[in-house]
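1st attempt posting a full record on here, be nice pls
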Amino acid sequence: MEKIHGNIRNLVFIKHKDSSKQYLFELPINIKLSTNDEVFCNTIYCLRELGTCTTDSFLVDSMATKQIINGVGAYEPLKQVIGMAAKRIEYEFKPLADLPF
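the predicted structure (as tokens):
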């Protein structure tokens, strides 16, 4: 297992449902995300917004982090990925009297 230094950060680009733009987020150093993973993240507009990873998560040092932030127009502090999205199927009750036969 590789040694993680204190100045290393774990970043990922995420796209939200109604946006074509990718946004840069940070996540805990021990979490690995993959492209197309569905996640929840905090944004300036709301808590727990659903998004899709457009890259794998990647580890970078503080110098590279600053360059990436400047290059994409992000700002500190980066918003956080706070959880994975689990798809759920729900059923609706329909009384037998409502059935068409």
